[in-house]
Amino acid sequence: MSNFTWVAEELNKLLKPLLEPLYLKIKENTESLEDLNFIPIASIKNDNVIPTKYLSSGTKQILVKTVPLFYIKPENSIILIDEPENSLYPDVQKNFIEFIVKETWHEKANCQFFFATHSPTIASSFDPWEIFELKFDENTGKVEIENYLKSKERDVNNYKFYPKYLRWDSILTKIFDLERDGALEREQSLEELAYLDEKIIYLKENNKKDELEKTVKKYKKIADKLAWKINKNL
Q1: Which residues, in sequence order, are CB contacts of 65 under 8 Å at separation 6+?
Q2: I want to staple 130 with a disulfide (CB 3.0 to 4.6 A). Which of 42, 126, 215, 226 is the partner?
Q3: Buried b (16+ CB within 10 A) or exposed e, 182-209
């Protein structure tokens, strides 16, 4: 077994949790010189190697952020990873963070990770005392750290927000300070839906069947766009 084949086997074993959901693997039995210029990624389906130029940017991100750690095998180190969500689907983002935090790369590595991110999915992987949010203060012109404590006392039960328990949209509004949890069109449609809901009640009580039918049809059309659960009694 060549040294490269051994490395490929070890890498494949290590990255299997991340690559397998993408139907990819690291091809282990690779001996040709031209293949040594890059890590050979193959399709699980047919075992064919995929040229680097055809790999998705998400797959490349996984390799770029994990393979160096595999080779370096850091000890007692602080590891900084910028934008771990780049080009990754939300479910892969969460799996990636869980994988890289759990993976010690070797026994007793004792490493600490810092992730710089704008992703609510990744923010939900951490407890509030693990999050440091930097915000620009327009009054002082300085960047300051947001304080999530209810009071000055530092205690696990004294935080305003617990990202692991929040919905993604709540993280965006409460942690990332977005003014609304969706596009303006969603907000306007929700308001119209509430109005139509009241109107349907009124039309039913006053037995206005023709107008009721048109209103229910309009209600269902808007509700469908919002992926809203429609009342079966309509």
Answers
A1: 81, 84, 96, 100
A2: 126
A3: eeeeeeebeeebeebeebbeebeeeeee
- Number of separate domains in the chain: 2
Whether residue 153 is contained in a domain is answered as: no
Domain residues for 211?
A: 184-225
Confirm whether 125 is domain-assigned: no
Q: Where does a domain end: 30, 55, 80?
A: 55
Residue 59 pLDDT: 93
pLDDT at 4 over 60: no
User: Which residues, in sequence order, are CB contacts of 106 under 8 Å at separation 6+?
Assistant: 73
| Conformation bin of residue 224: beta by default, left when phi > 0, alpha when psi is -120 to 50 | alpha
Asked if residue 195 belongs to a domain, the reply is yes
Note the pTM of the prediction, 2 decimals: 0.75
Per-residue burial over 150-167, b if 16 or more Cβ lie within 10 Å, else e, is: eeeeeeeeebebebeebe
Digit-coded pLDDT (tens) for 125-177: 999 999 988 888 888 889 988 878 998 888 899 999 999 999 988 999 988 88
Contact 181, 173 (CB under 8 A): yes
Q: Dihedral of the CA atoms 177, 90, 14, 101 (nearest 10)?
A: 20
Question: Could you count the other beta carbons within 10 Å of the beta carbon of residue 142?
Answer: 9
CB 115 within 8 Å of CB 97: yes
- Over residues 89-118, mean pLDDT: 84
Assigned domain for 144 exists: no
Spatial CA neighbour of 230 closest among 202, 205, 206, 197:
197
In whole angstroms, what is the distance from residue 85 CA to residue 93 CA? 6
